[in-house]
């Protein structure tokens, strides 16, 4: 299993970023996938899930601001993040199967003015 997240960066509050996660080594289309993040000094926390059957789930604090999607042809998971807040800062990872599943390289998101 290889998962490589990208697309992070420095953005001002209210800005947007789109994260991508390139997956390989497994049949992506048959797996539920999740985005998780680790804020500075805090534990890893679940952000959003894309189930293989099309159902999407979101943590309350990102509902209406973040959108998870996937491209099963490109084996890629996405997270569109709008109206970013300083508390969204952290390292974002994609995980296979569930929020506690295997996760690979993360991408740093910093929201700051």
The helix-strand sequence is EEEEEEEEEE
Number of strands: 10
Fraction of residues in H or I helices = under 10%
Distance between the first and last residues' Cα: 37 Å
Total helices: the number is 0
Strand content: over 45%
Brief sketch in words of this structure:
It contains no helices and ten strands.
If you had to describe this structure to a student in words, what would you say it looks like?
The protein is 0% helix and 50% strand. The chain is mainly beta and 113 residues long. The protein is globular, with a radius of gyration of 13 Å. The relative contact order is 0.33.
Lay out the secondary structure.
Elements (H helix, E strand, L loop, with lengths): L1 E5 L2 E3 L5 E8 L8 E6 L5 E7 L5 E3 L7 E6 L4 E6 L8 E7 L10 E5 L2
Parallel strand pairs: 2-10
Antiparallel strand pairs: 1-3, 3-8, 4-5, 4-9, 5-6, 7-8, 9-10
Provide tags for this entry.
mainly beta, 6-stranded mixed beta sheet, 4-stranded antiparallel beta sheet, single chain, globular
């Amino acid at each position: 299993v290889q998962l490589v997240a990208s697309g992070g960066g420095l953005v001002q509050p209210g800005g947007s970023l789109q994260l991508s996660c390139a997956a390989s080594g497994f049949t992506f289309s048959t797996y539920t996938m999740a985005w998780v993040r680790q804020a500075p000094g805090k534990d890893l926390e679940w952000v959003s899930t894309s189930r293989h059957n099309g159902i999407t789930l979101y943590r309350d604090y990102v509902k209406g601001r973040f959108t998870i999607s996937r491209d099963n042809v490109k084996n890629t998971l996405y997270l569109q993040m709008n109206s970013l807040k300083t508390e969204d800062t952290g390292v974002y990872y994609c995980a296979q199967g569930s929020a506690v599943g295997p996760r690979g390289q993360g991408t740093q998101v910093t929201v700051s003015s």
